[in-house]
Design a protein that fits this description.
- This protein has 5 helices and 9 strands.
- It is α/β, with parallel strands linked by helices.
- Strands 4-3-2-5-6-7 form a 6-stranded mixed sheet, with helices on both faces.
- The chain is globular, with a radius of gyration of 17 Å.
- The structure holds inosinic acid (IMP) and magnesium ion.
- Inosinic acid binds near residues 99, 101, 104, 106 and 156.
Length: about 190
């Protein structure tokens, strides 16, 4: 394997953890029908696996956002490009994210959703890059704590590529990868 990246969480470990998260959500929401809201695009792969580990009727909605500039400068102000097309008032809502970094995006989204009066509003994030946090956020369901490295795969991209790598990879040399963006192509292998 190229030295530009290394496997941070392999596909088997990810699948085990997703199963545990699904089980926890199922237990905590017995007799309810949670509304799962995911932010495109990175969270979509995690969501697809997670929802099939939740043994409850769930509803599924997507949001798409764009940021003004970088997260830090924009203080997390984002423009909502695609919104939830259902009334979430009085409903248990779980916001599903691939990765929480500074927490700015999530904080903005949570405040936007909270105004709509859900019965509960919780976060399920596969990766928690907690050392990078600027705004504290309560992540009720967190998959893995993530080191301060850029990660790709399992939905997460580098310039829109590599979302379909089955493992979660940490990038060891971003500059080298930018110079050789095809370097990871051999890591795109179909799962079992
Ligand atoms: P935050 O507002 O800084 O918490 O940004 C979180 C968003 O940034 C995530 O939903 C991802 O879309 C993106 N992001 C943060 N870190 C990474 C990473 O290491 N790889 C890929 N995307 C990332
Ligand atoms: Mg995201």
């Amino acid at each position: 394997m190229t030295e530009l990246v290394s496997v941070l969480f392999g596909r088997d470990e990810v699948s085990r953890r997703v199963r545990e998260l699904g089980r926890a959500i199922t237990q905590d929401h017995a007799d309810r029908a949670p509304v799962l809201i995911t932010v495109l695009k990175g969270g979509a792969i995690f969501l697809a696996d997670l929802m099939r580990q939740i043994e409850l009727p769930v509803e599924l909605h997507f949001m798409a956002i764009s940021r003004y500039g970088g997260a830090e400068e924009s203080l997390g102000r984002v423009q909502i490009l695609l919104d939830v097309d259902a009334d979430i008032t009085g409903r248990p809502v779980i916001l599903v994210e691939d990765i929480v970094d500074t927490g700015l995006t999530l904080t903005y989204l949570l405040s936007a959703l909270k105004e709509r009066g859900p019965a509960s509003l919780e976060v399920c994030a596969l990766l928690d890059k907690s050392v990078r946090r600027i705004v504290p956020v309560d992540i009720r369901y967190a998959g893995f704590d993530c080191p301060d490295r850029f990660v790709v795969g399992y939905g997460m991209d580098l310039h829109e590529r590599y979302r379909n790598v089955p493992d979660i990879l940490q990038v060891n040399d971003s500059a080298a990868l930018d110079r050789a963006p095809d370097e990871l192509t051999s890591l795109i292998t179909a799962g079992p």
